[in-house]
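Exercise 7. Given the encoded structure of a 342-residue chain, write a plausible sequence.
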């Protein structure tokens, strides 16, 4: 039995999802003639109370499109130092948009309105890049699945309006945040100019993200997606997976959160574990004691059929997901409890 806890992107479609995909009615989405894509875009836009949505092959492309929408070359965006748009999108901020990043030292990947306000360059001081965009991530990936307090989003929005900045949400794991906080997704549509949401992480679809905004912005995003090579043809088969995932896989995220917390409870009791970061959703980050070699630990787990990921410097990550079943969870808990280091 192989148990892959490296990421929630490793899931495979269920048999029910595959059957739903095969039954999809499709067309050429480059011509905006794929009815299933149109249905998915309308479904997600309505859920978040936004006017329109556009289907993308990846969350990275959706985020990069949003940044391109909101900025001009030479300008600057504000984000946390852990931000996915800075750390894990191949330098696309500079490559695609010619934009620099003002990185803030937030709490577990989360920044405050006060920090944002203190980091905006004077628009009249032409020696510095013009600040034009604020990007936040919910949940935070590198921050261990942390969830923002929605009130902080509202405060950041006020700062953005005061200083004429755009506000983008990287919502790669927004579904986890919604389940954990019970926030109303329509409130997000009132606060953000653009939102990206991902279907291929917690929801288990094989591919796909969407960018949400007003109709004019999504019309402009269509051209940017084309330039980036994101136009797809009969992609309704994949959009159908997203529809099925939204209808069937959101509430079950609570199981992933429970299992991550139960793993954390066991790890906190082990003498070779130095620290377990707070666990709110499905991402668990922990550090090992100085005498514990993380490479050896990962190899010991690998021999037991358990795969996790290293973040370097003695820090490791476990991500629970829908393919991580209860029988696997029991086995991992027992295995961790029995692991011994001299």
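Solution.
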């Amino acid at each position: 039995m192989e148990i892959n806890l490296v990421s929630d992107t490793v899931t495979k479609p269920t048999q029910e999802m595959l059957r739903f995909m095969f039954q999809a009615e499709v067309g050429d989405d480059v011509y905006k003639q794929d009815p299933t894509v149109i249905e998915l875009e309308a479904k997600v836009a309505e859920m978040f109370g936004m006017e329109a949505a556009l289907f993308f092959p990846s969350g990275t492309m959706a985020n990069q499109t949003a940044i391109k929408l909101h900025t001009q070359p030479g300008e600057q965006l504000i984000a946390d130092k852990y931000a996915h748009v800075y750390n894990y999108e191949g330098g696309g901020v500079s490559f695609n948009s010619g934009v620099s990043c003002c990185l803030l030292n937030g709490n577990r990947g989360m920044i405050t309105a006060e920090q944002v306000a203190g980091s905006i360059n004077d628009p009249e001081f032409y020696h510095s890049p013009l600040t034009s965009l604020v990007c936040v991530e919910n949940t935070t990936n590198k921050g261990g699945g942390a969830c923002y307090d929605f009130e902080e989003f509202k405060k950041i929005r006020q700062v953005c309006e005061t200083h004429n900045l755009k506000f983008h949400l990287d919502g790669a794991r927004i579904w986890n945040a919604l389940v954990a906080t019970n926030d109303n997704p329509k409130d997000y549509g009132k606060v953000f100019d653009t939102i990206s949401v991902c279907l291929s992480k917690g929801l288990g679809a094989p591919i796909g993200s969407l960018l949400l905004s007003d109709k004019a912005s999504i019309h402009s995003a269509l051209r940017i997606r084309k330039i980036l090579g994101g136009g797809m043809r009969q992609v309704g088969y994949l959009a159908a997976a997203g529809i099925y995932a939204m209808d069937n896989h959101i509430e079950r995220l609570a199981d992933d959160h429970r299992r991550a917390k139960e793993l954390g409870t066991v790890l906190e009791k082990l003498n070779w574990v130095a620290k377990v970061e707070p666990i709110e959703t499905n991402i668990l980050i922990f550090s090992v004691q100085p005498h514990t070699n993380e490479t050896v630990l990962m190899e010991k787990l690998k021999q037991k059929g358990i795969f996790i990921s290293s973040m370097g410097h003695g820090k490791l990550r476990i991500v629970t997901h829908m393919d991580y079943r209860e029988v696997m969870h029991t086995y991992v808990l027992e295995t961790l409890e029995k692991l011994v280091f001299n």
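Remark. The chain has a mean pLDDT of 97. Students should compare their own answers with the one above.
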